[in-house]
Write a structure and sequence with these properties.
mainly alpha; 3-stranded antiparallel sheet; two-stranded antiparallel ribbon; globular
């Protein structure tokens, strides 16, 4: 199977029969027959499939995230639906708008400093996803999230899904201010000072993005269920379909990230002094575990507490606030990260397979 691709090839889309229009914005992707086809996947998906097939032939596993570590979206579908039924739309509007804004920030992935990837490992990286990170994979990811030139991306698609489902709700004026005033994340501690900082930062960043992309699967399912519910959303089919298009696009992101990290895991990192060697599994597994605990344990707990306060503040402005608040809490199934601070996290290693 072919293992080398040019940058232009990895950024090439299919020849669509119909474009995707989100609101009044021309967006990436399009339709062939009756099916939606994700952007920039004419060669990108076959390339990822080929690199994963190489891992499989070499008997190497693919890194993945155990589903029991994925926190459910808050507020839950049942809670969000109840709020909409009570006419309390502001928290849901805010949540969907923040998702769209964060998607727009995804373009910043193209600013990720990349080391000389051929000199980063003892072994050759030719014909791997690693070698193509700066050759189209990262740029395709950035364009998918924020759009490119005249085409909108996931930012505009989330906005369209929100407006379709909630009939163009009035947007809270303090969204950006609250985002900027959010709790600052502590600076990440170096785990492998023997490696060049740019190398460790690359692995930590890629593992963090991969975890966030996998966790987002629950967000997609939440949004499809809520915006696709005819009891609370008017253009429910169109809204849910728009979310499904974004969800489909994200699969390429998850697959190239887990492929590149699995390739790194199977290799040996070269230290800053040029002579020290560190096993790839040692580096990737440790940084994955540190990132996983922070992203799906500490951060969701903090975000949940903040959102709960904001939701109860919105409920207080309603008649029968006590009844509504009580019912809202009754619908909360809760969630606790399944591993304590002193417990080692299990990584899920799967047999390499082509992306679905």
């Amino acid at each position: 199977m072919r293992l080398e691709y040019t940058r232009d090839e990895l950024l090439t889309s299919h020849a669509y029969e119909e474009p995707l229009i989100a609101g009044d914005v021309l967006c990436h992707g399009g339709f062939i027959g009756s099916g939606y086809v994700s952007p920039r996947t004419l060669h990108r998906l076959p390339a990822i499939g080929a690199w994963q097939d190489r891992l499989r032939r070499e008997g190497l596993p693919l890194l993945n995230l155990p589903t029991e570590y994925v926190p459910p979206h808050y507020p839950s579908y049942e809670q969000a639906k109840y709020l909409l039924q009570e006419g309390i739309t502001d928290p849901i509007t805010r949540s969907l708008t923040i998702i769209s804004i964060v998607e727009g920030f995804g373009a910043r992935i193209r600013d990720l400093p990349l080391p000389d990837l051929h000199a980063t490992f003892v072994e050759d990286v030719g014909g791997t996803a690693i070698a193509h990170l700066g050759g189209g994979l990262v740029e395709a990811h950035a364009r998918d999230e924020a759009g490119h030139r005249r085409e909108g991306g996931h930012k505009q698609m989330w906005e369209a899904a929100r407006d379709l489902g909630l009939s163009k709700p009035e947007l809270p004026g303090d969204i950006l201010l609250r985002m900027m005033m959010g709790r600052r994340r502590p600076e990440r501690r170096r785990e492998f000072p023997e490696l060049p900082a740019v190398t460790e930062n690359l692995v930590a960043f890629l593992t963090g993005v991969m975890i966030i992309e996998i966790v987002a699967e629950d967000v997609f399912e939440w949004a499809k269920a809520l915006l696709g519910d005819p009891e609370v959303c008017r253009q429910n089919r169109a809204a849910a379909a728009m979310v499904a298009h974004i969800q489909q696009d994200e699969k390429a992101h998850v697959e190239y990230l887990r492929t590149a990290l699995s390739e790194m895991r199977a290799r040996t990192f070269v230290g800053a002094d040029g002579t020290t060697h560190v096993p790839g599994a040692t580096v990737v597994d440790r940084l994955f575990e540190v990132g996983l605990r922070g992203i799906v344990s500490t951060r969701p707990r903090e975000d949940r507490e903040r959102l709960r306060e904001e939701i109860h503040a919105a409920i207080e402005d309603r008649a029968e606030a006590s009844r509504i608040a009580s019912r809202f809490e009754e619908l909360d199934a809760g969630w606790t990260f399944p591993k304590g601070e002193d417990e080692k996290l299990d990584l899920l290693l799967e047999t390499a397979a082509a992306p679905r």
